[in-house]
Design brief:
Number of domains: 3
CATH class of the largest domain: Mainly Alpha
CATH topology of the largest domain: Helix Hairpins
Number of helices: 7
CATH architecture of the largest domain: Orthogonal Bundle
Helix content: 40-55%
Strand order of the largest sheet: 4-3-2-1-5
Shape: elongated
Distance between the termini: 107 Å
Amino acid sequence: MNLFALVLESGEKTIFDEPKAWLESHGVNILIIILGAWVLRRVTVALLIGVLNRAIRHHSFASETDRKKRIDTLDSLLSTASKIIFGLVAVIMIVDELGINTAPLLASAGVVGVAFGIGAQSLIKDFTNGLFIIIENQYRVGDVIQLEVAGGQPIPGTVEAITVRTTIIRDIKGVRHHVPNGSIVTASNKTFGYSKLNEMLVVDTATDVTKLEKVINAVGEELVADEELGKLIRKTPILAQIQGYSELGLTVFIRGETVPGGQWKVQSELFKRLQLALAKAKIKVATAPFPMQSPATKKKP
């Protein structure tokens, strides 16, 4: 007996024998199976997310944003897993309702599964890495990250979804990238816990450093005092390091700390206000190499 005949073996009429009669007796059942699987999946995911909302406590995270990102990531995983599980169950029930004997199919699926497992090592690696990414909370939905992938260019962007097989991120140009988890070598998270400001500024070598420090620190205090920006700043931006002389001039660094993801907005406003403050204080910013000189040797007009 061939496989097709074995699969069709059943004691009742099938859709292939009497389509109209079969639809009248089984069509409603199939519709109920499909709708039931859809409703049960939605209810199950909603219940699990409700449990997670209560189980994942606020004090375990640096901010409510971090907590929400973790919940959104688990929500994405649960949605994907529930689609697979309820989808497979529904398919088996529908096949059975079609009058097809599912026992040979399930037996064949076991053999195919073994063969598939041998030939799908990369897929298994994707699943394994995906589970570790989620369990270790390496990055969450909404995080800004950069992925180093084996044999490819770095991929920066915002995480849109995480599944056990792929990470989906959208870059600054709006391009959506699907990255297999198994190919990820290094994941750099730019919005986890807190973010840093580390801005380089090059000024004329004849600049009064004490005056420069006062100007930079005053701008930092202005940002903290701002009603909107102040909420993003954890440590006030200050002149933190004088690195030394270069071919462009005197190099200094401005450093501060912000809430996760707040560094770009604070950085933009910092340079906007610093530009005005430096011009007012008559401190020259490098646009081309300055002649090497110190305040003591600067020629008086």
